[in-house]
Design goal:
The protein is an alpha/beta fold. The protein has two domains: 57-140 and 245-279, Periplasmic binding protein-like II (D-Maltodextrin-Binding Protein, domain 2); 143-242, 3-Layer(aba) Sandwich (D-Maltodextrin-Binding Protein, domain 2). The protein is built from eight helices and 16 strands. Strand 5 (72-75) and strand 6 form a beta hairpin. The radius of gyration is 26 Å and the shape is elongated.
């Protein structure tokens, strides 16, 4: 009898310990971000609506490279431009506060994949290589890769870069699509040497000081740079045409969907076009 009571007490202790273990198996990670910032969870906003996962509650952190006028640039101690204003409008629709983090262009995709930023907007073109690391929203603008040369240059059109026996030194901003396309189309084919600079302005200065023969860069920044430096011009024939979009972490489909929906609304109601028109003269 005494032995039976002892066994019963032991069984009760085991059950109790198992229950305690189950209750303390660790915190609920339903709304916790994964190390790569790719959680698909949502949380309640102040107005009771649900907002997608972001790396910091109440914020939408944007990685950008603010040396790319008119899409992003510094003015009066703040980052302004087309991308900055579109991001502000999207954050407003999501009930979030936008935080803009300026960095080298080579780091904007990495900031998203590492979870240090929620989105990247820096005149980013959709490419197959980038789609291995991030997802992209609907395109919100079309960009043109322009060719800047010095007045009187022997390069008079894009076709001169591909001419038989041609070989030129070409300046680009590192990791931009200008870098990618000139590398694939020209350097890899033995038609050019590509000189990569951290900033587009540095590439243009290299052209002005005869260190490169031309610069391949987005059309709108090209216009801004040429307006600042005498003796430079933009060729009439573009290098390539591309679409700009917002980069979001591959696993964070909830945030991608929310941003894409907000962006689509802003495109349809004319907000995006009005922002673009504010910075780019239609003429």
């Amino acid at each position: 009898m005494k032995r039976a009571a002892t066994i019963l007490i032991a069984l009760m202790l085991v059950v109790g310990l198992l229950s305690l273990s189950a209750c303390n198996s660790g915190p609920d990670t339903t709304n916790s971000p994964s190390p790569s910032g790719t959680s698909e969870s949502v949380s309640d906003n102040q107005d009771g609506t649900e907002v997608p996962f972001t790396s910091e509650e109440g914020k939408l952190i944007m990685a950008t490279s603010a040396g790319f006028p008119p899409y992003e640039f510094w003015e009066g101690g703040a980052i302004v431009g087309i991308d900055a204003e579109i991001a502000e409008a999207i954050a407003g629709k999501l009930g979030l506060t936008l935080q803009k983090n300026d960095m080298d262009f080579t780091s904007v995709i990495l900031a998203v994949t590492s979870g240090k930023a929620d989105i990247a907007m820096a005149g980013l073109t959709i490419t197959e290589e980038r789609m291995l690391s991030v997802n992209f929203t609907t395109s919100y603008a079309t960009g043109v890769q322009a060719i800047i040369v010095k007045e009187g240059s022997e390069i008079t059109s894009v076709y001169d870069l591909y001419a038989e026996d041609a070989f030129f030194n070409i300046g680009v901003q590192e990791s931009t699509t200008g870098d990618l396309y000139t590398t694939w189309d020209l350097e890899d084919e033995g038609l050019a040497t590509i000189f990569r600079f951290t900033k587009g302005a540095d590439a243009v200065m290299a052209l002005a000081t005869d260190r490169v023969d031309c610069v391949v860069i987005d059309d709108e920044p090209a216009k801004a740079f040429v307006a600042q430096i005498d003796g430079l011009m933009i060729l009439e024939t573009e290098f390539t045409v591309e679409d700009y979009a917002i980069a979001v972490g591959i696993g964070n489909t909830a945030l991608l969907e929310a941003i894409d929906n907000a962006l689509t609304e802003l495109i349809n109601d004319g907000t995006v076009q009005s922002i673009i028109d504010k910075y780019i003269n239609a003429d």
